[in-house]
Specification:
disordered C terminus, two-stranded antiparallel ribbon, 28 helices
Length: 644
């Protein structure tokens, strides 16, 4: 159960400090400030000073007096997270290495792993030596295979990291006898750091396996790659608006009629009127922001359990969607629990965005399509997409007017105040957006040049919401607690809010807003949340070594945000704001201290508690520089603190 703030936190902390044998965590050296708890003035001055400097006001007795957090090498992080070839090897050399790896004993043919047979025989590119593979395969993870538990068979066969449990679980299925007794889990709150890191915790088996929706059809993918897919509604809309279309999207083989067009009924779809479009209501619903990398399907399932009403897939590039790239289509997948779900696409030109929107509306099960016009990353802006569109309002108009009539679900836009700092322009055309066909606008209270620095300008969001008339305006930026939510929707002009980084740091923010209270979630409950994430992730990416390592990567990306949460019971003043940076501190238990660590090595050790040891030569650098500031100790804090 989640604990209210109440007096629980203070009493628990007092017991931890007062009694050396009450908590194993007291084996570490106590902060110097603990010995002088009777002196109330000095701690209060320190807390006020921290808050003035932009730090989270943590009770003094928990603050770390000496720096323990490393400084991130920003240049190295940018280089390693850029997605470029970091090895300096040629493409031919990389291809040759991949082929050698496929034949190596560390991998195995999927067909051989599942059934023991392969239709390609000796011509197969992958290893067929099962015994050699098992000899090099990493040790099984504790727990049971979620696939065998529910279906009786595993799609990964001998490559599953729970392969040792397959026979026992399969034999137990359908029997009236209860499952074998599992040893009671240790009380994690009482273990010290060394004992915690030595644990290998089992991943829970979900109650049911729910099929994922919006899976790319192989026939459709092949036709997209051959440019044999028709876009009649888009062609008509682009022609009507006088928008030139790139030759790249010209359909090949016009002399032959495509079976796709006949089967899908494109001509019938093209005659539908806008009145048949599905209507949705965004007002007063809590909206989880579409988050690149960290906003994956397993994470969104976690947010749904905490009360998120609206979820949206990660940003997908319109051009990649039209080319049939499987990795991009994977971003459109939807879980059965996502009852109000949209997808977000990005592009700089009306022809590609319109065709991608028509294709998604025709092929996918979505409740709305959002067009990203606010992403600040250089890769997208340099191609005219994302926030770069804020420099060209006429292009925004063309995209909205062309895309809205070709889809049967609402079209929404997400944008920023403007591109250049000090030159806000959204208010100049916000009154016209509903006339362009958009049914909602999400407005981030920053410019592209600001990115995520400084505070979001909610006065400007409120101003635009008043000008927008009946168009629902969804505010975005810096919501971190229910008080801030209440303040921003109190005027009645902002329909609801979109929550991004705060949901990464504390996914239960949706529950806090709905229940109007601060929740002091324990370290054990947060670790249980990570277990559920791993279960969701292996259901999504697979339970073989590749799936486990993919799960690890995405969990580490999430931990680069999650560690910034400061438990409510440690705060001297409520509420905490997103712009406040957490100083180095001790938790109430060693597990809480471990989860608060800003060290990448500690995040990796947490992943090993759940997913076993990392492979040889494993390294990790967060893609999002969420912890690029230095965590300062009490002795090192100066006047250089920034807000944000």
């Amino acid at each position: 159960q989640l604990n209210d703030l109440g007096g629980w936190g203070n009493e628990h902390c007092a017991r931890m400090v007062a009694s050396s044998d009450a908590m194993v965590a007291e084996k570490r050296p106590a902060p110097a400030s603990v010995a002088n708890e009777g002196d109330e003035k000095k701690p209060r001055m320190e807390e006020n000073k921290l808050k003035a400097q932009g730090y989270v006001p943590i009770k003094t007795r928990f603050l770390v007096p000496t720096s323990e957090a490393p400084v991130l090498n920003v240049a190295a992080a940018k280089k390693q997270s850029s997605g470029q070839n970091r090895t300096g090897k040629s493409r031919k050399q990389l291809k040759r290495e991949r082929e050698e790896m496929m034949k190596s004993k560390g991998t195995i043919c999927n067909s051989i792993a599942r059934t023991g047979k392969c239709k390609f025989g000796d011509d197969c590119k992958f290893n067929h030596d099962v015994q050699a593979f098992l000899a090099q395969k990493p040790a099984d993870l504790p727990g049971e295979c979620l696939y065998v538990s529910h279906t009786g068979e595993c799609p990964f066969g001998v490559s599953c990291r729970f392969y040792g449990s397959h026979d026992a679980v399969a034999a137990r299925r359908g029997q009236a006898s209860p499952p074998p007794t599992v040893a009671a889990a240790p009380e994690l709150e009482k273990l010290d750091r060394d004992a915690l890191l030595a644990l290998r915790l089992p991943i829970p088996v979900p109650e049911a396996l729910n099929a994922e929706l919006n899976v790319l059809d192989k026939d459709l993918q092949a036709k997209l790659r051959r440019r044999q897919v028709a876009f009649p509604r888009s062609d008509e809309a682009l022609s009507r608006m006088g928008v030139k279309s790139s030759k790249h999207y010209a359909r090949l083989g016009e002399g032959k009629k495509s079976n796709f067009q006949v089967e899908r009924g494109d001509n019938e779809v093209a005659r539908r009127t806008p009145r048949e479009r599905k209507e949705v209501d965004f007002r007063n619903k809590l909206y989880l922001s579409p988050l690149t990398t960290v906003g994956n399907l397993p994470y969104r399932r976690i947010c749904k359990t905490f009360g998120a009403d609206i979820t949206c897939g990660e940003m997908a590039l319109a051009t990649n969607i039209l080319q049939g790239q499987a990795s991009e289509w994977a971003l459109l997948k939807r879980h059965a629990s996502e009852d109000f779900f949209g997808v977000q696409i990005a592009g700089g030109y009306a022809d590609s965005v319109t065709r991608a929107a028509e294709l998604i509306s025709r092929e996918m099960d979505v409740d709305f399509i959002d067009v990203n016009m606010g992403c600040p990353i250089d890769l997208l802006c340099n191609k005219g997409g994302g926030a770069a569109l804020m420099k060209k309002p006429n292009r925004i108009k063309a995209i909205a007017q062309c895309a809205s009539p070709v889809i049967d679900v609402p079209l929404t836009l997400k944008m920023r105040k403007g591109y250049y700092d000090g030159k806000d322009i959204c208010h100049e055309f916000v009154q016209e957006i509903s006339g362009w066909g958009a049914q909602a606008l999400t407005l981030h209270g920053r410019t592209r040049e600001q990115r995520y620095t400084k505070c979001a300008d909610w006065d400007y969001i409120e101003r635009c919401a008043k000008l927008a008339g009946d168009l629902p305006v969804i505010g975005n930026g810096d919501i971190f607690n229910f008080e801030e939510y209440n303040a921003h929707v109190a005027g009645g002009n902002v329909s609801t809010v979109m929550i991004g980084r705060a949901a990464l740091i504390k996914p239960w923010i949706f529950q806090e807003i709905k229940e109007q209270r601060h929740i002091d979630i324990s370290a054990t409950e947060r670790l249980d949340m990570l277990k559920v994430f791993c279960s969701n992730a292996m259901e999504h990416w697979g339970s073989d070594s590749k799936g486990v390592e993919t799960t690890r990567r995405y969990m580490l990306e999430w931990l680069s945000f999650l560690h910034r949460y400061v438990p409510v019971g440690l705060l001297e003043v409520l509420p905490q704001s997103l712009g406040m940076r957490p100083p180095a501190y001790y938790g109430r238990t060693d597990l809480e201290t471990l989860l608060a660590s800003s060290k990448v090595d500690d995040w990796i050790k947490i992943s090993e508690m759940l997913l076993g040891p990392t492979p040889a030569n494993f390294s990790f650098v967060p893609k999002h520089r969420s912890y690029s500031y230095k965590v300062l100790s009490v002795d090192e804090r100066g006047d250089k603190a920034e807000n944000g």
